[in-house]
Design brief:
The structure holds two protein chains of two kinds.
Chain A: H1 3-10, E1 15-21, H2 30-40, E2 44-48, H3 59-70, H4 75-82, E3 93-96, H5 99-105, H6 107-117, E4 121-123, H7 129-142, E5 146-151, H8 157-166, E6 170-174, H9 188-198, E7 205-209, H10 215-222, E8 227-230, H11 232-238, H12 248-257
Helix pairs in contact in A: 2-12, 10-12
Chain B: E1 10-11, E2 14-15, H1 24-39, H2 41-55, E3 61-63, H3 65-71, E4 74-79, H4 89-102, E5 107-112, H5 116-128, E6 131-137, H6 138-143, H7 145-153, E7 157-161, H8 168-181, E8 186-188, H9 199-207, H10 209-222, E9 229-234, H11 238-244, E10 254-262, H12 273-276, E11 278-282, E12 285-289, H13 314-321, E13 325-331, H14 332-346, H15 352-359, E14 371-376, H16 384-391
Parallel strand pairs in B: 4-14, 5-6, 5-8, 6-7, 9-10, 9-14, 10-13
Antiparallel strand pairs in B: 1-2, 3-4, 11-12
Helix pairs in contact in B: 2-4, 4-5, 4-9, 5-7, 9-11, 10-11, 14-15
The chains are: A alpha/beta, B alpha/beta.
């Protein structure tokens, strides 16, 4: 059982995950940000490995990815940096990014390296279910990595069941079909969708992401799911600040406590 | 050798649908019904009628006598430049707009490089009274101003893509992001044989009318439907796929695709994907793309906005790998000179994209009896500014 799976056994709700882009705003920021987030009370981390063409991301994460690449962030550099992340950071760590950098690194090699440095799981939005099952699943399983899949309000019940079967961490439930960083549309439709998926009694925990930017949206997500993920709102907090580490505690507390 | 797509959406090692889950319902919907819709009589009746009476098909197959004399072979031009809107792009948008109607979509989005696909999309949206949003790189908006004006006249909204190199790749990213955010009412008309399955197959099917007509026309003009050479230019590769489609299984027909070498293949300013690219994933399919060792996409360069793309369609990647098609790299200068030559010898001003295919004639050792067909994919009106600057006209 990896740290992520242990977390879900221990904690059933109000779980907060924070996403940030590795190598942003400074190349060396990856580790200090992780430490500061743990200290501030984040329950797990999603560290983005940047890609030049992030299709599922809005302007904030596009920009952080672009700057991280300009700062010199690559998968080699990231794995070098993460070598010393354990045990100074104890909460679960996921890597999030796009298929092409992972394919160039080699999926088998990527999974091996990730496990070596203490990563618990991976989120690759553009790695399809079909290819994962057919080609890559053994690499994830052999290295004890949870592969996290996304669902949206348009995902059919049959597909959600299939994703639930293939998942062994949590299900990343998108608040709406959107690119990252769009503000949440507070409508009855979304409540109906949250409730519909909640009522399916899936074996995996649900964590809601996209559009979570403040305490109100965090609390609302937790009515239906075990927790929520904040990404763009956090990356925006880091932007353009030399003392970015000093703002992390207030940000996390603001999300959790209002 | 099998050159066609398999049931999983792959051409050999290439293709598939590497898309975020948000796009899955749309792509799956399209995948399961596009062939049924396209093959239905009601679709075919409307499609054929529009191709004939609106687009002006069949486009002529013209025996270019002075070019023939110059190269010492019999050269034919497949005149896609004479289509309504001035390029081959409309063959695909006519098909996809009828499809979008059948799917009940109310809003159309598209990416464009040179603006030809944007114009062709705006055209069919005007024809059908559907909302139209075109994403176009900021750099391309500046170098293809007349096409931007055309789109606007036909009621389209043109949104500049301001990320990355601000060209076709970035316009494609923005269109895909739009589709993620508008999954229910919107259809994305991809303009090339790129993107997740079934797009590459669907677009090449709509463009295959080019080679279908060519075979019939060539037979009636020469008594044989098989030329020795077939040439076309490749950015993403839609006119080439349409031009090659019905010749793929005629193994004695040599197929040649001209890529944009820009300032030179190794100059750092190029779009010669088949030489500079490696296998990976771009815009939803596994293909060959120009990328760094770390898997970041490299910004392409070409003087022609339509070939300024860091990848090629997955079927091209396959045809390259199995060596069914020969990919050659043509520099900006070679393409521009070929445009001038065609203008002077034949009274036909081709698009700069097409100039790359024409320039490839220079490197073929023709026998006198050889017959070559070139896809004259578009007219050069949109490129007049570039010609004026380049040739100091």
């Amino acid at each position: 059982m990896n740290t992520l799976q242990q977390l879900f056994q221990r904690k059933q709700n109000n779980i907060l995950s924070v996403y940030y882009t590795a190598g942003y705003p400074k190349l060396a920021a990856t580790l200090p940000i992780a430490q500061a987030l743990e200290l501030a009370g984040a329950d797990f981390l999603e560290i983005g490995f940047p890609y030049s063409d992030p299709l599922a991301d809005g302007p904030v994460i596009q920009k952080s990815s672009e700057e991280a690449i300009a700062n010199g962030m690559t998968l080699n550099v990231l794995f070098e940096q993460l070598k010393s992340i354990r045990p100074s950071v104890k909460i679960p760590i996921l890597l999030m990014g796009y298929a092409n950098p992972m394919l160039q690194y080699g999926v088998e090699n990527f999974c091996k390296k990730a496990a070596e440095v203490g990563v618990d799981g991976v989120i690759v939005p553009d790695l399809p279910l079909q290819e994962y099952e057919e080609f890559y699943k053994p690499y994830f399983e052999d290295n004890g990595l949870s592969n996290i899949f996304l669902i949206t309000p348009q995902t059919s019940e049959a597909r959600i069941r299939k994703i639930d079967d293939l998942s062994n961490g949590f299900i990343y439930m998108l608040s709406s079909s959107a690119t990252t960083g769009k503000s949440l549309n507070v409508s009855d439709d979304i409540s109906a969708y949250y409730q519909r998926v909640k009522d399916m009694n899936l074996k995996n925990k649900l964590i809601i992401g996209f559009g979570i930017s403040d305490n109100a949206s965090f609390v609302r997500a937790n009515q239906y799911a075990s927790g929520a993920i904040v990404g763009s709102a956090f990356v925006k907090t880091l932007a353009g600040k030399d003392d970015y580490l000093a703002h992390i505690d207030a940000f996390v507390k603001g999300i959790k406590e209002g | 050798m099998n050159y066609r797509v398999n049931e999983k959406g792959y051409y050999g090692d290439f293709g598939g649908a590497y898309i975020p889950e948000m796009l899955y319902p749309n792509i799956e919907d399209l995948r399961t019904c596009y062939l049924d819709i396209i093959n239905s009589p009601i679709f075919q009746i409307e499609y054929q009628d529009l191709l004939k009476n609106y687009v002006g098909r069949p486009s002529p197959l013209y025996h270019a006598e002075r070019l023939s004399k110059r190269y010492g072979a019999t050269i034919y031009l497949k005149r896609e430049d004479l289509n309504h809107t001035g390029a081959h792009k409309i063959n695909n948008t006519i098909g996809q707009i009828i499809l979008a109607e059948r799917l009940g979509k109310k809003r159309i989005i598209a990416e464009t490089g040179a603006g030809q696909h944007g114009v062709a999309t705006a055209t069919v949206c005007a024809l059908k009274g559907l909302e139209c949003v075109i994403y176009m790189g900021e750099v391309d908006i500046n170098r293809q101003a007349p096409n931007v004006a055309r789109m606007k006249m036909m009621g389209a909204t043109v949104i500049p893509a301001t990320s990355g190199s601000k060209t076709l790749k970035d316009a494609t990213n923005e269109a895909m992001r739009d589709w993620i955010n508008n999954p229910v009412d919107t259809h994305y008309i991809i303009g090339s044989v790129v993107g997740p399955h079934p797009y590459p197959e669907m677009v090449s099917l709509f463009q295959s009318v080019i080679s279908e007509e060519t075979k019939t026309q060539l037979f009636s003009q020469t008594g044989s439907s098989q030329p020795d050479y077939v040439l076309a230019c490749v950015g993403g590769g839609s006119n080439a796929m349409g031009m090659f489609y019905h010749f793929l299984d005629d193994e004695n027909v040599q197929l040649i695709a001209a890529e944009a070498a820009g300032l030179g293949v190794n100059s750092g300013h190029s779009a010669a994907t088949s030489i500079l690219g490696r296998e990976g994933v771009l815009h939803g399919s596994r293909t060959i793309l120009m990328q760094t060792d770390d898997g970041q996409v490299i910004e392409p360069y070409s003087i022609s906005a339509g070939l300024d793309y860091p990848g090629i369609g997955p079927q091209h990647a396959h045809l390259h790998k199995v060596k069914r098609v020969k990919y050659v790299a043509i520099t900006d200068d070679e393409a521009m000179q070929a445009c001038m030559l065609c203008s002077k010898l034949e009274g036909i001003i081709p698009a700069i994209e097409t100039g790359h295919a024409l320039a490839a004639l220079e490197n073929i050792a023709f026998k006198k009896t050889d017959v070559a067909v070139i896809c004259l994919s578009g007219r050069g009106d949109k490129d007049l500014d570039t010609f004026m600057n380049y040739f100091k006209l």
